[in-house]
Predict the 3D structure of the following.
Amino acid sequence: MVIDLLTSHSSVRRYKDEPITRETVTELIRAGQHAASSHFVQACSVLYVTDTEKRGQLAELSKNRRQFYTGGAVLVFCMDYNRLSHAARLHGREIDYSVAENVLVGAIDVGLFAQNVAIAAESKGYGICYIGGVRNAIEEIAEVLELPKGVVPLFGMSIGVPNEANGVKPRLPVEAVLHENTYNEEKYDELLPAYDEIMMAYYAGRDSNQREATWTAEMADFLEKPHRLHIKGFLEKQGFLFN
């Protein structure tokens, strides 16, 4: 069942040395294209990185060496308004994609597209891992990939034959994310400590990388200080001004 596939997802970071064919990658991208798209703008492009030197550069810049070096296929998903600019010019017109709404539309399009690719890959027995580290050096990676104005790399994805079997991380209880009619924050005082206990048991009991940690403490550590402050400047350089 599809629901069983969705709820069995875990990130794969170790792959067997087995390449994925171009035909399979094309099939996965085609599946990605059938994701929903706001106003059908289809503001997503994917860079399929097959050049060994470029993969090496992305590995170092993103600080995700294992993913870029060992994945059977490596993709970089980009928000793309350059193609839409070309579409408008066919009619002698220019578009304004600088506003914050278009950043949201493009980012959502890319996320939906990529998740379709992920599910399609997992349905064929492959493993995947999203690579947010692309944003560690977003401008340098855009240069490596020769991305024009209007195109922004949001994240990568490695796909391959898994060489490991990871347990599924326990998610927040449904009650913590599902609200009925109004947003109820009072329930967090009870639900979050209970979830911390679940995560403590998960981290202590898994086969590798065991540690003593809770979800709330990790989130506090992660979000206490802002990250990747260079991204706003790059977005402005690419034409997204948040007007």
